Amino acid sequence: MRVFISTVVLFIVWVILTQSFDPQELFTGLIVAAVVSLISPAIASDKPKKWFQPKRYVYLIIYLFYFIWEMIKSNIDVAKRVVNPKLPINPGIVKVKTKLKTNAAKLALANSITLTPGTLTVDIHDEWFYIHWIDVSNCDDVNRSCQEIVEGFEKYLEVIFE
Hints:
Elements: H1 2-18, H2 23-39, H3 41-44, H4 54-83, E1 92-97, H5 103-115, E2 119-125, E3 128-133, H6 144-161
Antiparallel strand pairs: 1-3, 2-3
Helix pairs in contact: 1-2, 4-6, 5-6
């Protein structure tokens, strides 16, 4: 049943995005939706009953606004560093710990960090994230500023995925 519902929802998204009712497009969309539904049970069936909690969707909407805000701030910071060569660029890799437990939550955190300019998730090992950061001049493994990279995202992702 989960695969069927997921396939239908993904197919509807496909039709909305392609805006085409060509039989080839519809057939391709149906195949893609079915394949994605079949190969992604870990995300949807992790704790199936919890996916129907409205609190998760409220946090998802808040998270999207938070993520967009962080992207805007990071874009401005990186743009300033590009335009003004006097601003410091001290790239390095920092090690930060996450409190997220599920793989889906860790994946969302890693992608959120990577999509934010100036940071890139290089590796994940258990609860440790290795992040390439544009300016690590005042950061070490135990420094609070390093942990702030993940904490803003974590507070929302923890409710959404766990």
